[in-house]
Amino acid sequence: MSQIKSSEPPVSVAVVEAVSAAEGREQMSLPLLRDAVDPEALDTLCRTGETTTVSFEYSDSRVTVDGDGSITVAARTAGTQIQ
User: Fold this and answer.
1) How far apart are CA 32 and CA 30, in angstroms?
2) Where are the domains of the chain?
3) Do 23 and 13 touch, CB atoms closer than 8 A?
4) Of 63, 42, 39, 61, nearest to 52 (Cα)?
């Protein structure tokens, strides 16, 4: 089982940081993460190290988080559907 080191931010914080950087926006100008996904569930997913992947739309981006804590941020395109 892999765990996030205490010196690393929770993945929910890292998602906001990654989207902020990708969109070139201040973190405080982004919508609340909890309006897109449950931050506590996302953090738990990465603490357990499961081989699960979660994708969701947040702000103007499509975010994918892997169980190992890897985060991918891509520009959301019109007509994108979450499956």
Assistant:
1) 7
2) 11-75
3) no
4) 42
Nearest CA among 10, 6, 24 for reference residue 73: 24
Question: Across the strands, what pairs with 53?
Answer: 66
In this predicted model, what pLDDT tens digit does every residue of 20-56 receive, in sequence order?
999 999 999 999 999 999 999 999 888 876 788 999 9
Q: Are strands 61-66 and 53-58 parallel, antiparallel or unpaired?
A: antiparallel
| Whole-prediction pTM | 0.81
Q: Residues near 77 by Cβ (< 8 Å), separated by ≥ 6? A: none
Q: Is 50 helix (H, G, I), strand (E, B) or coil?
A: coil
